[in-house]
Amino acid sequence: xxxxxxxxxxxxxxxxxxxxxxxxxxxxxxxxxxxxxxxxxxxxxxxxxxxxxxxxxxxxxxxxxxxxxxxxxxxxxxxxxxxxxxxxxxxxxxxxxxxxxxxxxxxxxxxxxxxxxxxxxxxxxxxxxxxxxxxxxxxxxxxxxxxxxxxxxxxxxxxxxxxxxxxxxxxxxxxxxxxxxxxxxxxxxxxxxxxxxxxxxxxxxxxxxxxxxxxxxxxxxxxxxxxxxxxxxxxxxxxxxxxxxxxxxxxxxxxxxxxxxxxxxxxxxxxxxxxxxxxxxxxxxxxxxxxxxxxxxxxxxxxxxxxxxxxxxxxxxxxxxxxxxxxxxxxxxxxxxxxxxxxxxxxxxxxxxxxxxxxxxxxxxxxxxxxxxxxxxxxxxxxxxxxxxxxxxxxxxxxxxxxxxxxxxxxxxxxxxxxxxxxxxxxxxxxxxxxxxxxxxxxxxxxxxxxxxxxxxxxxxxxxxxxxxxxxxxxxxxxxxxxxxxxxxxxxxxxxxxxxxxxxxxxxxxxxxxxxxxxxxxxxxxxxxxxxxxxxxxxxxxxxxxxxxxxxxxxxxxxx
Length: 560
Ligand code: ATP
Ligand code: MG
Ligand code: MG
What we know:
Belongs to the class-I aminoacyl-tRNA synthetase family. This is Glutamine--tRNA ligase. With 560 residues, the protein is of the alpha/beta class. Among the domains are: 8-266, 3-Layer(aba) Sandwich (Rossmann fold), CATH 3.40.50; 356-466, CATH 2.40.240.10. It has twelve helices and 25 strands. It has helices at 8-18, 40-55, 74-87, 101-113, 124-129, 148-158, 213-220, 235-248, 278-286, 301-307, 311-321, 332-346, and strands at residues 27-30, 59-64, 94-96, 117-120, 169-172, 187-191, 205-207, 224-228, 262-266, 348-350, 352-353, 356-361, 370-375, 385-390, 393-397, 417-420, 425-433, 439-446, 464-465, 468-469, 473-481, 506-515, 527-529, 533-537, 546-553. The strands form six sheets. Strands 10-23-24-25-21-22-11 form a seven-stranded mixed beta sheet, covered by helices on one side. The chain has a seven-stranded mixed beta sheet with strand order 19-16-17-18-12-15-20, with no helix packed on it. Helix 7 crosses helix 8 (235-248) and helix 11 (311-321) crosses helix 12. The protein binds adenosine-5'-triphosphate and magnesium ion (2 copies). Adenosine-5'-triphosphate (ATP) binds next to helix 2 and strand 8. Adenosine-5'-triphosphate binds next to helix 2 and strand 8.
């Protein structure tokens, strides 16, 4: 892998190491909420969390932030694990925030007993109204000063099957005038009666993010808790709850103030022409605006995998955009360039004709066939070769023929020579049309001395065309994808994001022909359809009906 300059995150980590913090130990975590599939934004966080651990001899654990049972399930857990493995990372432990529900409960009880938490029976609307503004203090809840015993009784009541969702919350008693809004008596627990995918019906109230995340980091011994910029204003509260925890466990004054996770924030990944909010991705799937989470148009890792992106190209892209303190919108063309770059090195070159028209080599013997050698990858000698069958009847691309061609048309036109890749030089002699003037067949004569590898093949011919033998090929469906959205930044648009979808984001070519070699490939194998682009077999493919996804074209066709 290429050397790269340190990001500001790694610089901070190195400062901590130099200062002797945590005894030189490095421990990070990637904390997905199992309420959806991972997308390329998550990949940016994964590369950082795992990258820091790898670079400094530490460990990165996974922690499922499963504190909201109403949106989470094990299907998401399984897929998240699979996607992280696919990206090429190895975790230490797998933890769940739900492993800490007992500890967090005890901590909450301690907070109540110390007069630092209270049960509020107001509605969430009332609580929101009392928050105040950053410049005006909030209004204290009428329940703020209720006695400890009453708080303990009500908090226990919150954790019963009878508790009504929304009827009570536990709040930290902090500072209703603090300029940081997160200090204005943040909610610690709320009632949720949906069974949890791991703890079942043991719990009826669950900790909020702010009362679970930092504490979980602390319990696990995380040294650097790396997250995205929207958590900057949460950081003082993150630290405050850890202060309380250290007070509770008696390590508050341990001199070095060691054993304390440090939260560091970087900019989220936003990509042009897509959305990354899980709520919106859920909508796309639930309303069948795409064909599932792994639709190749989705920004999900499973979608990109199905489309044919390599994990290496995603990691290279993330390295190239880097980590900063400013949110930005990254051009998806950069990702596609990274995909092209990587696939060029690993894709097997094959022949496929997406919009076929018949080409007959009139002077080639009927019934004859020859096995031609096709190099699998000119970028990689070790990739070897395969054979492709040449016969009298071929398919070529309709766009590769013009009856009256301009001078610069170096493809097939009557009277001119072109090379058929890996085969012969042929000279077009004419074409046949139907009653409507559509071309139904093209004729050419081949030069028997010009077979690839023979001296006669060295003659200068401007154009080289790809082809497939009509007598030795398979039919295939090819799915071609365009931008999922018509606008660069759908998230910044006032209109409903559904109205911004590109209605032509999926184009299906039903009548393609591919060389027989493709019957032996599998989804997961990187392919280049020569002169067209990079492709991957789709899992919908069967022996009778081959299906391929276009990963990306050979050249960027959007920024011409
Ligand atoms: P949403 O807010 O859409 O529900 P999320 O960010 O809450 O998504 P999580 O599963 O909680 O999703 O995210 C796990 C980790 O991935 C978090 O640390 C989060 O900061 C990080 N992450 C999520 N989206 C991005 C992104 N677009 N760029 C970088 N990191 C991201
Ligand atoms: Mg989250
Ligand atoms: Mg979120």
